[in-house]
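batch_manifest entry 22 of 60
target: 15-cis-zeta-carotene isomerase, chloroplastic
source organism: Arabidopsis thaliana
requested by: lab member K.T.
priority: normal
notes from requester: please return tokens only, no post-processing; we will run our own comparison against the previous entry in this batch. if the run fails, retry once and flag.
--- input ---
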Amino acid sequence: MAVYHLLLSSPPSLLLLPPSPRRPNLTLIRRIPAHPRLGNSTSLLSSSSPVIRKILVRSTLREDQPIASDSESSPTLLIGEDSAAFELGKQKLVSWVYFGVVLGVVLFILNVVWIDNSTGFGKSFIDAVSNISGSPEVAMLMLILIFAIVHSGLASLRDIGEKLIGERAFRVLFAGISLPLAMSTIVYFINHRYDGSQLWQLQGVPGVHEAIWVANFVSFFFLYPSTFNLLEVAAVDKPKMHLWETGIMRITRHPQMVGQIVWCLAHTLWIGNTVAASASLGLIAHHLFGAWNGDRRLAKRYGEDFESIKKRTSVIPFAAIFEGRQVLPEDYYKEFVRLPYLAITALTVGAYFAHPLMQGASFRLHW
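--- output ---
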């Protein structure tokens, strides 16, 4: 604080002193809080001389915080969160034990209340939707529409719900309603994916299977950017609405939408019938709405911080990079060499080889 008063009271000659030759060459600058006498320090940094900028930056940061260089090539100020950050040393064994217990309890309840045809309501729900029309395409769209209304509706009510019952209770409510509906939609798609009218047949064309496999594999790196913290998903940790900025978010601000579109196009190309096309139409429409709704909710929650991130990111993949609004760090690849992405890689490969098991389990439900 003393440096502020020194800056205001010192003669001009003091401000013209050359910078210290030992000034560190660092790469990151943090947001500088406003000072009651100087106002917004970030505006002073942009309008003052280089020497004044150095004094202001040094006076508002702790000694252990880095200072940016004056080079125009310095990385952009990081406002949001570092996605996929996972520090093993900060993990608590008891939290993961709780996670295992919660997961087991949820799966047990889901099986009794929804999956098991002798006790659950899943089959009755599927039959009710299917009886609306004899068309599997219509049933597929109806299932997606019901899920979309519930899922996006509850997401829009998150702020109100968390104030009324708390973050953890609202997450349990959100998952408890969304999970059975999502599972019903997935199982129906697996069981009826080859119904309907065939539009094209490319499964015997050389190279198509490999291209579809790669597209599906890549899609999962986009699909789950906000579920890296599984402890929040299970409400072991207090759930938060995150403002991610690094990793996949540099490529697109809505990776889940992009991943879903890639997944839908790949599966529709491979299956090639009207049921797959209707499923893709419904899922893509839902995620396009989700992208708009997500921006609206983040803008409401984070205000100017979100608007700043919005200016240097894009919905269309790589658009902000090509336009120069997003500058990738030289070591950008390190934002992907992290345990959550390794876990996604393993789970995606495992899911591919587990396709026969998932199909067999779905067939046995007769949904």
